[in-house]
Amino acid sequence: MQTQIAARPFNRSSYFVYARGLVQESEFPEALMDFIRKYGAPDKLCSDEGRAEISRRVLDILRMYRIDDWQSEPHFQWQNFAERIIQEIKKYINWILNYSGAPAEAWYLALKYVVYIWNRTARKLLGWRTPHEAAFGNTPDLGPILHFEFWERVLIKNYQDAGFPSTSNEVAVHFVGFAENTGNIGAFLVWNANTKQLLVRSRVKRINSDLRRNRRVMDDASLVDTGANRGIANPLPIPAPVVEEVVIADEVAPDDAADEDPDAAGAGHEQEVPNPVSYTH
């Protein structure tokens, strides 16, 4: 999964954010179609007049689904309601990477992790509803969020053919997020730094669990995914991020953004931020 650009469509009326990885900027039309396939067509596509967002392929999609479009003026990013949210998302990604000690190459996985929690965090501006509920009408299950922290070392079943009894039947990996399209709601994404694999597992447990502690894994350096593994060049097959942000908004015209919420345009204001739109550079 090589990802250079993360396109983050945003729904202004609900502050719902959607993140999808792109290998090349030219893949944006496919990302837009995936958004429509999964969530439906938005009322308007807002962008910073980047080539990918105003290409002929994108215009054909907008015509097909009767989607309006709007672009901000050059050097007037504040006109785009999504810009503040972009900064907030990036801030949270930095916090997650700093706190967890995850390598910089894990930025895209951290982005998906942040967006998942963002969409399930109640907002005062939404009447203390979550963006997910405001967008789709149903209350999301918060259970999966409460189990693990990003990049936490966890145990899964040893999926490589381990020899009994010399090798443990469990292997240590890193928790990196939630599998939204695979398995049940309790399926997680884990990263095995030794094999460079991103895996989906529903049976995951803490490595330091007092009830079921696995001392063979904790004491065996060959099985434990220690901090030394982070020193390997590009432990994740994800190059350094090039962020180019894209916005999908609806219902409110861009001219009214400042009138509706004047603080949303100010990048330095300390307030609870609604979920603006997102780009990636």
Features:
281 residues, alpha+beta, 5-stranded antiparallel sheet, 4-stranded mixed sheet, 7 helices, 19% strand, elongated, disordered N terminus, disordered C terminus
Compile the SSE list and pairings:
Elements (H helix, E strand, L loop, with lengths): L4 E3 L2 E2 L4 E2 L2 E3 L5 H12 L4 E4 L8 H10 L2 E4 L11 H18 L6 H12 L12 H6 L16 E5 L12 E9 L9 E5 L4 E5 L3 E2 L8 H5 L24 E6 L7 H4 L17 E3 L1
Parallel strand pairs: 5-6
Antiparallel strand pairs: 1-4, 2-3, 5-12, 7-8, 7-11, 8-9, 9-10, 12-13
Helix pairs in contact: 3-4
Task: Give an overview of the whole structure.
- There is one protein chain.
- The chain is an alpha+beta fold and 281 residues long.
- The chain has seven helices and 13 strands.
- A five-stranded antiparallel β-sheet has the order 10-9-8-7-11.
- The two termini are 18 Å apart.
Summarize the structure.
24% of the residues lie in helices and 19% in strands. With 281 residues, it is α+β, with helices and mostly antiparallel strands.
Please, what is the oligomeric state?
single chain
Estimated structural class: alpha+beta
Task: Report the sheet with the most strands, covering strand number, pairing sense and barrel closure.
Answer: 5 strands, antiparallel
Let me know the number of strands. Answer: 13
